[in-house]
Amino acid sequence: MKIIFNVLIACLIFAVTVAAGLQFAVPWRMTDDWVATFSLIPLAFMIIVLLRAPETAVPSWLAFGCGIVMDTLSHGVLGYWALTYTACTPLARLVSSELNAGLINRICLHAAMAAFVFMLHVLLHISLNWNGLLGELAWTGIGHSTMRMFIFAASVEVMFAVLANLSFQLEGFGSLALPSNTKPQ
Amino acid sequence: MVVLQEDAYIRGRNAKQQSTISWLHCALIFVSAALLLLAHIDYPLARNIQRSLDLWGARPISWARDTIAPAGHIWERAHLAFAGDLEVVRLQRENIRLKALEDRMQLYNVRMQELQRLAKFISQDKQAPLLTARVLAGANGFFGHSLLLDVGSNNGIRHGYAVHSFTGLIGRIIDVTDDTARVLLLSDAESRVPVAVGDNMYHAILAGAGSQPPRLLFVPETAQIKDGDQVVTSGAGGVMAAGRLVGRVSVSADGFKVQLAAFNRKFRYVAIERYAGPAARLTDLLATKALERSAKHGVVKRQAAPFAGAQLNLKAAAQ
Q1: Could you tell me the pLDDT band of residue B167, with boundaries at 50, 70 and 90?
Q2: pLDDT for residue B280
Q3: Is the pTM of this model over 0.80?
Q4: Relative orientation angle of helices B308-318 and B280-296, to the nearest 10 degrees
Q5: How far A10 CA lies from chain B's nearest CA (Å)?
Q6: Which residues on chain A are in Cβ contact (under 8 Å) with B268?
Q7: Residues in chain B closer than 8 A to A77 (CB atoms)
Q8: Residue B208 DSSP class
Q9: Burial B262-297 (b: 16+ CB within 10 A, else e)
Q10: pLDDT tens for residues B128-143?
Q11: Which of A55, A76, A113, B154 has its CA 20 to 30 A from that of A131?
């Protein structure tokens, strides 16, 4: 049962990555930071799953594979999104093992991950020296995309918390949403 | 004590919740960083991997473009409705309608001119200087701007060919497979094109700058360049033909920038100019050498057809 669940989660993450990546093929009017935001959605989704599902649900090869798929669909520099995804997921896993109880903690974790992604991208752009373009463009573009990633993840967390609260109220188990790994009484 | 244990469980301090970074994760991070570095320096191995992935991804991208593209128009309309003033939109529509009525008398004349131009434009003859190609996908990053086209070496496409839209030059071919070709747009941060500026044809290099307008580098200090001066290709280096329209100069505080004549990322069809300049043989030779190196390392199969002429030259040079 656990294996089937993990496979389903992996398929869902892959589907989200492909869906987010296919927007590169559609000629609609989106600015670069929105395009980068769509590329960060799968990462936010992986972190949300990491906080809830067993840690085998987002294995390292899946994060790497999703990154390569995103690189392929976006026709960007090969390895850019693969490195982003692969570097962020273990960090999220490490931090989540300490801080995954409660809505506020989870939102803080998403904020920390967004900050890490921002720093990673800025570091990549500095180290690869894309013609010294790091400046206003990076601060606005990378900053906007990571901020939107955080807002997306935080909104999903709040939505889950509200839904969990409602379901517990309906079932008469109390008015507070319990963390996912709380031992059932 | 029970409370503490519960607390520890909730905070995930029991043995099962402890996580470490596995060796596989470290290896994948290393592989990703290595791929990024190799792709950045345009190493043949990374280029071949990317080429293989492009071939793999071309079909789903093409399908998505055909299937989801109508949704793009809905997005555009929504964007227009929310971003613009509704009154302005209404007046624009009315203006368009009035212009259409006014232009009705000249319609046949304009259509004839357009058809004449199009008949030359969409010629599929391999000897024709222009070949029309469909855009499979376009990539927009902070710095990287490129297009994937549905023509390749089977259609006679080579490295370095200039790519145009109806309004001007948009980039050049940087990678060719049998059925696809990748275009590096002028706005890409890695793009460098020799241009001539103004009536005096001052030579300079047009350098892409991502989302910002491209900049002019190596402009002579004595050059008298003003706003609105025309920028065309200079033909220096022999890769592109001279005199192709690029855009117009915009003088700013931090140097000369160029407003591209074809700064529109929503390209659906583009025209590839098959210019057999003096550098064409050289680019073929370099491409063949890269292919030879890749084949030697077993990365790709040896392809004889696209660069047959260059291979002959290579053999002749070796002899």
Answers
A1: confident
A2: 66
A3: no
A4: 80
A5: 17
A6: 27
A7: 36, 39-40, 141, 144
A8: E
A9: bbebebeebbbbbbebebbebbbbebbebbeebeee
A10: 578 888 888 776 666 5
A11: A113
Residue B135: count other Cβ atoms within 10 Å of its Cβ: 21
Q: Take residue B242 and report the two structure tokens written for it.
A: 């001279």
The pLDDT score that the predictor gives to residue B206 is 92
More confident residue, B15 or B27: B27
What are the tokens at B292?
Answer: 């030879």
Point out which residues pair with B231 in neighbouring strands. B197, B247
pLDDT score of B195 more than 90: yes
**ipTM here:** 0.79
Determine how many CB atoms are found less than 10 A away from the CB of residue B28: 25
- In this complex, do B33 and A24 lie within 8 Å of one another by their Cβ atoms? no
Q: How many CA atoms lie within 13 A of A73 on its CB side?
A: 29
Q: What is the spatial distance between Cα B58 and Cα B52, in angstroms, rounded to a whole number?
A: 10
Question: Mean of the per-residue pLDDT values for chain A?
Answer: 77
- Cβ atoms of A97 and B12 within 8 Å: the answer is yes
B contact residues 3-22, partner A, Cβ 8 Å cutoff:
6, 9-13, 17-22
**What contacts A17, CB < 8 A, 6 or more positions away?**
A42, A66, A69, A70
> What gap in Å lies between CA A99 and CA A97, rounded to an integer?
6
B124 has a pLDDT exceeding 60: no
Q: What is the pLDDT of residues A85-128, one digit of tens each?
A: 998 888 888 877 766 567 888 888 889 889 999 888 888 877 76
Quick one: average pLDDT of B113-136?
64
Asked if B130 contacts B271 with a C-beta cutoff of 8 angstroms, the reply is yes
Helix axes of B44-83 and B86-102: crossing angle, nearest 10 degrees: 100
H helices present in A22-135, as ranges:
32-52, 60-74, 80-98, 103-128
For residue A55, the distance in angstroms to the closest alpha carbon of chain B comes to: 9
Structure-model confidence comparison of residues B261 and B80, the more confident one:
B261
- The tokens of B147 are what? 């297009």
Phi, psi of B282 (to 5 degrees): -65, -45
Among B46, B54, B142, whose Cβ lies nearest the Cβ of A36? Answer: B142
Q: pLDDT (tens digit, 9 = 90+) per residue, A46-59?
A: 888 888 765 666 78
The token duo for B61 is 């991208």
Residues with Cβ < 8 Å from A77, sequence gap 6 or more? A71, A128, B36, B39, B40, B141, B144
Q: How sure is the predictor about A169, in pLDDT bands with cuts at 50, 70 and 90?
A: low
Q: Which pair of tokens denotes residue B192?
A: 């460098």
Alpha-carbon dihedral sign for residues A19, A25, A27, A32: positive
Q: Which residue of B has its CA nearest to A145?
A: B142
Nearest to B31 by CA among A60, A18, A17: A60
Banded pLDDT at B204 (limits 50, 70, 90): very high
